[in-house]
Amino acid sequence: MNRPLRVAALASGRGSNLAALIAARDAGRLPVEFTLVGSDKKQAGALAIAEAAGIPTVALSPKDYATRAAFDAALFDRVADSGADLLVLAGYMRIVDAAVVAAWAGRAINVHPSLLPKYRGLHTHRRCLEAGDTEHGASVHFVTAELDGGPVIAQARIPVHPGDSEDDLAGQLLVEEHKLLPAAVGAIASGRLRWQGGPMFDGRPLTHPLTLANLL
């Protein structure tokens, strides 16, 4: 590719992972061009972060559409119209219609706060603590119709200490997410990580999750 990778992002919340991506780009570590940041919440902090960085934004309300599928199609059409090569779900909190996801096979990734396949869905820190785990982590994975079920690209791990709360784990893990997600996007931008019927890394099928060290 003779141009930067064109990246769009969707986010529902404050946008800390989006901010990490923008910071990596601004520091020269991430050769990408952001085409759009979209949200299902007009007050999402991610939109303000994008606007401050000069990135186009769009916010659509699910209430304005008759079905979930119609909303998903409308939002993802905006992403397609932006010319994005890659879609990053960076704290996007909606389950996306399977048919809409299928059109982005191999071109959409998500960051999730657990060591997948453990703890798909919500409340991952609570579930980790309730299970008595001694280790927690974050995963970046390709998006498929199965909730948090696509092939895992990379993972970061943190220890769980006695007395840790959900907030403790969330704060510690965000630090790792903010390194892992830009590194994964960077591997796609450089061509090291590709989708060819499945994830390929450095020309070989990806058989187990990468670490941050593998990606750098």
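[next item in queue]
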Amino acid sequence: MKAVGFYRSDLPLSNPESMMDLELEKPVPTGKDLLVRVKAISVNPADVKTRTSGKSDPNNPRILGWDAAGIVEQVGPDCILFKPGDEVYYAGDLERPGCNSEFHLIDERIVGRKPRTLNYAQAAAMPLTSLTAWEALFDRLGVNQDELENKNRTILIIGAAGGVGSVATQFSKLAGLTVLGTASREESVRWAKDHGADYIINHREALGPQLKAYGFDFVDYIFCLNDTVLHWESMAEVIRPQGKICSVVPAGKPVNLDSFFVKSVSFHWELMFTRAKFQTDDRLEQHHLLNTVADLIDVGKIKPTMTQRLEPINAANLRLAHEKLLAGDMIGKLVLERF
């Protein structure tokens, strides 16, 4: 089967060996694994970070990719959720080879049915961001999904125009929250508004004065998708007493937790790979969450977030995709389709 991978993680993207076109053996599903014929994939910051993580083997290629849509080719003997021919989408497992391959093994418990109203490319843009946004809002921050409960509650989404921010804004609006989203460019401001942000502030400037200009002294929740350390003190300033903050960006260095002490603020991390990595008892929840998101998409309550598409899926296009992510100005999601 065709795949894209690498043997060395220390090479710049300009080097053809940083990602190469490969021919690998087609895997065979066992246990609860599905063998999926991959039709489309999406790229995420996780791909970029993992490629340069230093974990590589000169004898075995590393295959990246944690967003896919495709068709179930075969099922393992213990599978009960899917059958051959089913259309699926999923984000995957950091501990296993990624989906940048023509065929891919994945535990059915973290796979959902593909939204019927989306094509494969559109569907591949949704799993990782949807799981991240859903878990952050409703599991970590504990946002109530009842619109009436959230009538006067606010959320600040730092990085509202990115892949996760685009979905988190929509989930927040469905839950009845007032959304203040950050964006710094004309096109990202427009995108954030189109996906439901009620107010836009610039994350390159002080957050407090901008919130006050809109009439808000504090916000009830903060979802940080852009440089946790940079925004640490600003978040401490604008979070409501007893408010909640969640971030998906590792700090990478010590931070002053006491900044949140006087307000009794709770801080949470979100990584949608946690359930798969640690084989938690509740990992089936990701199957249910992806199905819920598919239902919301199919009834028109959630918009797809693909903004760029490359074809075919090969090493040259994946290097280009990684370069686009590294530029730091992505709006929505970038997808590759067809091997």
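[queue empty]
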